[in-house]
Amino acid sequence: MGSVLVQLENVSRLFGRFPALRRISMSFATGRCYVLLGENGAGKSTLLRILAGLLEPTTGSASMLFDGKAERLVDQRARIGYMSHAPMLYDELTAVENLRYFASLYRTCACLTPEEALTAVGLDPALTRPVSQYSQGMRQRTSLARVLLPQPSLLLLDEPFSNMDAASAGKMIALLGQLRDANRTVVLTTHQRLLAEPLADHLLMMEAGRLAAVTPGPAQ
User: Fold this and answer.
1) 4-216 — its CATH code?
2) What is the pLDDT of residues 6-30, one digit of tens each?
């Protein structure tokens, strides 16, 4: 078991009076992959956004442990890579042009170059086609390259296998396994349990905003 990177303690999140998350307590270790499972509305994406520092808990605490200190996740976004369900790419640009733009937004990080990030996800940086002409698998890998630019410790992915064919999904799973083995913490949501399960060190089942079960995965 790696050292604890992220700690959630009694985290709840309300939207108005609706409890999207209910008293979640969970630790996430370095070099481990966590697969979030559950029906639509179970709270998976809300939990991912809490982990990304994009939402703060209504009650409870969400912190990243760094140099022996607990820091709020909202203050550690530079160490967190978040790949949303939407690709967040400019269709008219090439992959390198997209990544050059996003790299320019990280003014205080030691970023990978666009070429390094694309090579890391198995794409050719020399491709001159706009990403609008990419397959879904290539678009997802370009999105992942964007997330890897600042070399995050915590990698969060919302439905990374969505609309992928089997071959592309297999490449993505192999890539995420390599990132996990490089001592990154990977947390992903999916409706495709059989596809993601071999990658999982821990399977987290969510129901109605609660963490209903945490079971060991095959990769543990």
Assistant:
1) 3.40.50.300
2) 999 999 999 999 999 999 999 999 9
Q: What is the DSSP letter of 3?
A: P
C-alpha distances (whole Å) from 177 to each of 34, 149, 187, 194 are 11, 18, 12, 16
Q: Give residue 1's pLDDT band: very low, low, confident or very high (50, 70, 90).
A: low
Secondary structure (DSSP) of 99-147: HHHHHHT-SSS-PPPHHHHHHHTT--TT--S-GGGS-HHHHHHHHHHHH
Res. 132: pLDDT tops 60: yes
Tell me how far the alpha carbon of residue 158 is from its chain's centroid: 6
Q: How many helices (H) and strands (E) does the chain have?
A: 6, 10
Section 112-126 average pLDDT = 93
How does pLDDT run across 84-105, given as a tens digit for each residue?
A: 888 789 999 999 999 999 999 8
Is 12 in contact with 47 (CB distance < 8 Å)? Answer: no
Residues near 193 by Cβ (< 8 Å), separated by ≥ 6?
A: 35, 37, 203
User: How do the domains of the chain map onto residue ranges?
Assistant: 4-216
Distance, in Å, from the CA atom of 187 to the CA atom of 154, rounded to the nearest integer, reads 8
b/e code 130-164 from CB counts within 10 Å (16+ = b): bbeebeebbbbbbbbbbbbbbbbbbbbbbbbbeeb
